[in-house]
Every structure is written in C-alpha cells, then in structure tokens.
Amino acid sequence: MLKTIKLFIGTGFFSGYFPKAPGTISSLVALLFFLIPGFTSVYVNIPVIVLSFLIGIPLGNYFEKHFGEDPQIFTLDEFVGTWITFLFVPLTLKTVAIGFLVWRILDILKPFPANKAEKLNGGWGIMMDDVVSGVYSLLIIHIFIKLFN
Questions:
Q1: Peptide bond into 113 cis (omega under 30)
Q2: Does 149 have pLDDT greater than 80?
Q3: Which has the closest alpha carbon to 110: 141, 80, 136, 74?
Q4: pTM flag (> 0.90)
Q5: Which tens digits make up the pLDDT trace of 47-72?
Q6: How far, in whole angstroms, is CA 81 from its chain's centroid?
C-alpha cells in the first residue's frame, strides 16, 4: 500500500508513466489543479507547493534508489515547477499558454543555476532544478503581464 502511495504521488497521479513527454503531460495535469475551487489562493497554493517540495525530496531519493538517477517517471517536480510558474498570475488563456510554454522550455533547457541545482544529490537535485526553472518562469510571465497587459 505504501509503495502504491509513493508511486501515485511521485509520478504525479501516475502521469509520469505517460510514454511520450511525461514531464509535459505531468505539467498539464498540474494545471488542472487550478480548476479546483480555492487552489489559486496563495493560502492554499503556497502551502501545497512547500509540502510537495518537502515530500518530493525523500520521494526523489526513493525513486532514484528504485528506478535510477532522476527517473523520468518521477514528475512531482514538474507539478511544483508548474505551480510556482503561476503564483500571483491572473489565469487567462493567454497567461496560461505563455506561462506553460516558458515553463516547459526553461525546464528542458535548465538555465543557470537550474543546471547546477540539478547536480545536487538525490531528491534535492530532482526538485531544485524545477524550483529554479519555475521561479524563472514566474518572473518572465510577470514581466510579460506588466509589459503587454
């Protein structure tokens, strides 16, 4: 039972098992959380991000032990990065599309210091590169909103 719960959470509700682009699919699943009433509230969203991050570190260690270094099926980090990207962002079709695109590009390219964070040991590295890329995406989408809104 505990193994199933770890797999369920670590694979982003099993979205990490998607055969093609599991990170992108998991990020799309993470976006669905914004449809839950109240999830956009910082009083809900920030604690969920922090809790997911804190759970993600030991879960990342568990996944590395059982599936190898930074396994593709572990996608809780994509959830955290996606949720960070949209903090304090008014969710419109335009901001979600641009934010999602920026987030996925930065998560894949891993600009400094995300590329350095990825090299941290175990769950720390798995989670931190997505946190850094999520923060970059957050800043970019807010700049976009200020410039073009």
A1: yes
A2: no
A3: 136
A4: yes
A5: 999 999 999 999 999 999 999 888 99
A6: 3
Per-residue HEC secondary structure of 42-106 comes to HHHHHHHHHHHHHHHHHHHHHHHHHHCCCCCCCCHHHHHHHHHHCCCCCCCHHHHHHHHHHHHHH
Asked whether residue 11 is assigned to any structural domain, the reply reads no
> Which domain covers residue 96, as residue numbers?
38-148
Please indicate, yes or no, if residue 85 is contained in any of the structural domains: yes
Report the domain count for the chain: 1
Retrieve residue 72's tokens: 């593709």
User: Looking at the domain assignment, is residue 110 inside a domain?
Assistant: yes
Q: How far is the C-alpha of 32 from the C-alpha of 73, rounded, in Å?
A: 19
Q: Is residue 104 part of a domain?
A: yes
Residue 37 to residue 25: CA distance in whole angstroms: 22
Q: What is the pLDDT of residues 73-125, one digit of tens each?
A: 999 999 999 999 999 999 999 999 999 999 999 999 999 999 998 999 999 99
Amino acid at 19: P
First-residue to last-residue Cα distance in the chain: 48
The residue to which tokens 């982003």 are assigned: 12
50 residue type, one letter:
V
